[in-house]
């Protein structure tokens, strides 16, 4: 299915997809070369369970992680890159305090799978 996002207002706690994704029983699988996931959440940290091979670029509140570790995800480098090297839990953002944020994941490569989000 080719998903599209319209409008800029996203309801909290709802996953929004853009691009060609296959809805598997346990995951969403990117079947094209590029896809996007957006989620507005309230927590101190956010993780994804992902699998397959590929990479993604993670933005939070419209910004990539930077040399100052703006959102300090343990699995996201200072340029916002997340390398997916197999099925496991990936920490994509971590803050000192609880707050509301919008996460955006730009996935690259067919076979990238996302299973779930977890929060701390």
Could you walk me through the main structural features you see in this protein, from its secondary elements to its overall organization?
This protein has no helices and 9 strands. The chain has strands spanning 2-3, 16-23, 28-30, 34-51, 54-60, 63-64, 81-84, 88-108, 113-119. Strands 1, 2, 3, 4, 5, 6, 7, 8 and 9 form a 9-stranded antiparallel β-sheet that branches. β2 (16-23) and β3 (28-30) form a beta hairpin.
Itemize the secondary structure elements and their pairings:
Elements: E1 2-3, E2 16-23, E3 28-30, E4 34-51, E5 54-60, E6 63-64, E7 81-84, E8 88-108, E9 113-119
Descriptive key words:
mainly beta, nine-stranded antiparallel β-sheet, 0% helix, 120 residues
The helix/strand class is mainly beta
Major β-sheet, in short? 9 strands, antiparallel
N-C termini distance: 31 Å
Give the SSE string. EEEEEEEEE
Would you summarize the structure shown here?
The chain has 120 residues and is mainly β. The protein has no helices and nine strands. Strands 1, 2, 3, 4, 5, 6, 7, 8 and 9 form a nine-stranded antiparallel β-sheet that branches.
């Amino acid at each position: 299915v080719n998903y599209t996002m319209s409008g800029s207002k996203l309801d909290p706690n709802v996953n929004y997809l853009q691009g060609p994704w296959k809805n598997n029983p346990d995951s969403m699988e990117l079947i094209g070369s590029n896809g996007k996931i957006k989620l507005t959440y309230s927590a101190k940290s956010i993780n994804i369970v992902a699998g397959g091979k590929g990479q993604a670029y993670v933005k939070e509140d419209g910004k990539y992680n930077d040399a100052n570790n703006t959102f300090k995800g343990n699995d996201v480098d200072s340029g916002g890159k997340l390398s997916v090297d197999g099925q496991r839990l990936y920490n994509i953002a971590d803050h000192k305090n609880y707050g509301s944020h919008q996460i955006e994941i730009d996935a690259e490569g067919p076979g990238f799978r996302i299973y779930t989000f977890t929060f701390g």
